Amino acid sequence: MPQSCLHQAIYKARPDVKAVFHFHSPAVVLLSVVGQTIRPMHNYGAIFYEGVPLYTGTGQGRDRRRGPKWPSCSATPGADAARHTALVVGQSIREVCILALFLEESARLQTEAIKLGTPMFMERDEAEKIAKRTFKPTSVERASDHFVAKYAD
Q: How many domains, the chain?
């Protein structure tokens, strides 16, 4: 079954979504296999203040007749995590690429912090304020330009 079935089902269920990015994030997988999800610990992770739903089923997260089994990213921008993959949705290709980078970095930092002790997570209200103040179309463009320039060489 082509992966596009999942993307099509999300677009159908979420008319506000303009871009979907499905990727295989090692750090997200690590957290998901122990039943944890990404929680905001730093400014880049603040964008996920509404939470990152965790799909705990096994196998593929989609069904041709019923569409995605995943929560389909309850908020925009948003993300879902599963035992083998991650999914972000947003308003543009640039936005979902930046969200994917932020999700991977947040998950990686959280897995490293857990090795050292109990992470200090941001309170939801604090993370929401940071996200709304810093995650704007201009910041997405600036971050995207930065990463394109960084990896262009």
A: 1
